[in-house]
Design goal:
- This protein is an all-beta fold.
- The chain has six domains: 123 residues, Jelly Rolls (Sandwich), CATH 2.60.120; 86 residues, Immunoglobulin-like; 91 residues, Immunoglobulin-like (Sandwich), CATH 2.60.40; 92 residues, Sandwich (Immunoglobulin-like), CATH 2.60.40.10; 92 residues, Immunoglobulins (Immunoglobulin-like); 95 residues, Immunoglobulin-like.
- Strand 30 and strand 31 form a beta hairpin.
């Protein structure tokens, strides 16, 4: 079984996996009994074992099991969805109570999604997986159901709240512990004046995603109380946290600068110019400029870009980082006592992205197999938010030789890729570039050398091959080839010639991934002949068995649906043909009969197998125009489906005579 398990570790008496990481235990049986063969930590449950061992552990090809467990705090709990899929059995438990039960040996992946209500607090999820026979895979995910019509559970009120008021900055910093809800959208901070009952939202319209917020309450010497409320993705709001008191200083601070938000530019910029009317306070010391990619801009030392000393002028110019981000600027006024005003309105500018992402592919390696060259790698520890994926490069020479390589795929976000176009018998060098949405790419990864050996082994004979004679041909069916590199099939019809079976290719199917049907209706005439069929599996390299070495049906005899009455000789109809939807066309060999009478039309007859006669379909003859050089046409709209229908056509002459019939047939779906 090919494994997607990438973080195997040696089995140990006790392995601790930090929540919410899964603890995975591998057993060489289906009863989860005895000592696990391996215990490791998994960030997700998404394994494709195929028919081999998971990486890092040796298990039986069949009849093994894996148990994942994880305990975590769900906060206020609420409605969740569990989605499981497996080949073979999978069960999911919450605190020992079964929620998903698909416990049977199957030949294809079974899937199921259930809705579960999780109580508040800490709970344990357990996923049991059993592989009995054949291929094995398992996938499980869980998450909160966030539509407002479904989720009516409020988040828990934030805890661990505190407030610290700085007499230097006149700011109150509120801090709190992070809520445990998985559907948490963020927080809002509220403030009220001591003695008042009404709270005022002070954290802005955007939800806070961190666990701290800095507010500038009026420096009036009054006391203010702060509380934190949590909001989830369904719009439910928690009750307020425990009130935290901040006592302000009685100080008069400068007014916030005006006109900063009137600075703007069309399109991305490389230089940001800011200007504003000067403040009029007599104790004004200058201004401070703050920049942030978040809005509103938090006035902190980390966001200050104008330096430690206040600016003496009411303008500021800088070159922002060329990251492609939107940068927001605010300005504050500072007096000689160090009192700083509230931030000004916000000026926003977009920038050009000329910065490569911090992402990097590491531990790149490749192996050759029937499906091609499979590459695998790991993500670096420093991702960038605008990462757009990896570009995969391939060359027949090492990069150190100056080879530029060929980009064979781009925008790869996961950590595996199979090069299905690799040519066997070739040595390849692969490397990856991490690129962002602005086409900036980091330095290439280390390259992986892969010697891709040629595959000369044809797929084995298919199984389950049958040929069933039908009234409209022969229905051929077979089972899917078990070869991993099986690409398509060739279908041959065999006839006995001079005591030997000779096979003729009648159809090549499309690629298996594009044409999953494993059947073919050979619309040959059911004329009672003996025949055989052979189905040959062809791999992606073109390897295949000879028809007589592949799967061959036993000899059988086609149905014989031909009319029991032979047509009289001397028919004058030529080019007679009938389509499989009842449309006929023909031509006339001569415009007159032997007596010189001109042809005036045609009659069409259809064989009635039950009655053993040809029945005329045309109440009036089909008209004939000697001046019209096109073929004569007639539509039998009542032609029986899924059978073979025989027709005869005669010519009518002006002297009332009728020519002998010419015969054709149609094999219809």
């Amino acid at each position: 079984m090919a494994s997607a398990f990438a973080t195997a570790s040696p089995a140990a008496a006790a392995v601790t996996c930090a929540s919410p990481t899964w603890k995975a235990q591998f057993y060489a049986n289906t009863t989860f009994s005895g000592t696990p063969k391996l215990t490791a930590c998994d960030s997700v449950i998404d394994e494709k074992y195929g028919t081999g061992d998971p990486a890092g552990v040796t298990l039986p090809r069949d009849n093994f099991s894996v148990r994942w467990t994880m305990s975590r705090n769900f906060g206020s709990g609420g409605p969740f969805s569990f989605t499981a899929g497996a080949q073979d059995g999978v069960r999911v438990y919450v605190d020992g109570v079964r929620k998903v039960d698909m416990w049977k040996n199957v030949s294809s992946t079974q899937k199921k999604t259930v809705n579960v209500t999780i109580p508040s607090g800490a709970h344990t999820i357990r996923v049991d997986f059993v592989a009995w026979t054949g291929s094995a895979n398992v996938k499980f995910s869980y998450g909160p159901r966030t539509p407002s019509a479904v989720d009516k559970v409020k988040p828990l009120a934030p805890t661990g709240t505190s407030v610290a008021y700085s007499t230097n900055t006149l700011k109150a910093t509120v801090r709190w512990s992070k809520n445990a809800e998985m559907d948490l959208a963020g927080y809002r901070i509220y403030r009220r004046l001591a003695g008042a009952s009404e709270y005022k939202l002070v954290s802005g319209s955007s939800l806070l995603t961190g666990t701290s917020f800095t507010d500038t309450p009026p420096a009036t010497g009054q006391s203010f109380y702060y509380e934190v409320r949590a909001l989830d993705k369904a719009g439910n709001t928690s009750t307020g946290s425990t009130d935290q008191k901040a006592v302000t200083l009685d100080r008069t601070v400068p007014a916030a600068p005006k006109g900063v938000d009137e600075n703007w530019a069309i399109g991305p910029v490389t230089q940001v110019p800011l200007s504003w009317p000067a403040n009029t306070e007599p104790d004004l010391a200058g201004y401070r400029v703050y920049r942030s990619t978040a809005h509103p801009v938090v006035v902190t030392a980390a966001n200050r870009v104008s330096g430690s000393a206040p600016l003496s002028s009411s303008w500021y110019t800088e070159t922002p980082p060329p990251t492609g981000a939107d940068y927001h600027y605010v300005v504050t006024a500072v007096d000689t006592n160090g009192h700083e005003s509230a931030p000004s309105g916000t000026a926003s500018f977009s920038t050009f992205d000329k910065t490569a992402p911090a992402n990097q592919a590491v531990q790149l390696q490749g192996t050759g197999g029937e499906a091609g060259v499979t590459l695998s790698w790991a993500h670096s520890q420093t991702p960038s938010p605008d990462f757009a994926g990896y570009t995969i490069w391939r060359s027949t020479k090492p990069r150190s030789s100056g080879a530029r390589g060929t980009a064979i795929w781009g925008g790869v976000l996961n950590t595996t890729y199979t090069d299905a176009n690799a040519v066997p018998g070739t040595t390849y060098y692969y490397w990856l570039d991490a690129c962002d949405r602005s086409y900036n790419c980091a330095a290439p990864s280390a390259e992986a050398q892969v010697v891709f050996a040629a595959d000369t082994t044809p797929p084995g004979a298919v199984t389950g091959l049958t040929a069933q004679p039908r009234e409209n041909g022969v229905q051929v069916q077979w089972d899917r080839s078990t070869a991993a590199d099986a690409d398509h099939y060739e279908i041959y019809r065999g006839r006995l010639v001079d005591g030997q079976w000779a096979y003729t290719l009648i159809v090549t199917t499309g690629r298996s991934v594009d044409n999953p049907s494993l059947q073919y209706l050979d619309q040959t005439l059911p004329d009672g002949e003996s025949a055989r069929y052979s189905v040959v599996a062809v791999d992606r390299w073109g390897n295949k068995r000879a028809p007589h070495e592949a799967a061959v049906t036993p000899e059988f005899t086609e149905l014989d649906l031909r009319p029991t009455v032979a047509p009289a000789p001397g028919g004058v109809i030529t080019d007679l043909q009938a389509t499989n939807y009842g449309w006929m066309r023909w031509d006339l060999a001569a415009d007159a009969n032997e007596q010189g009478a001109r042809a005036s039309g045609f009659h069409v007859y259809r064989w009635n197998r039950a009655g053993g006669v040809f029945e005329r379909l045309t109440a009036e003859p089909v008209p004939y125009d000697p001046a019209d050089t096109s073929l004569v046409e007639y539509g039998d709209y009542s032609m029986p489906r899924s059978t073979t229908t025989f027709y005869r056509v005669t010519a009518m002459y002006e002297d009332g005579t009728e020519s002998p019939a010419s015969e054709t047939y149609s094999v219809a779906w």
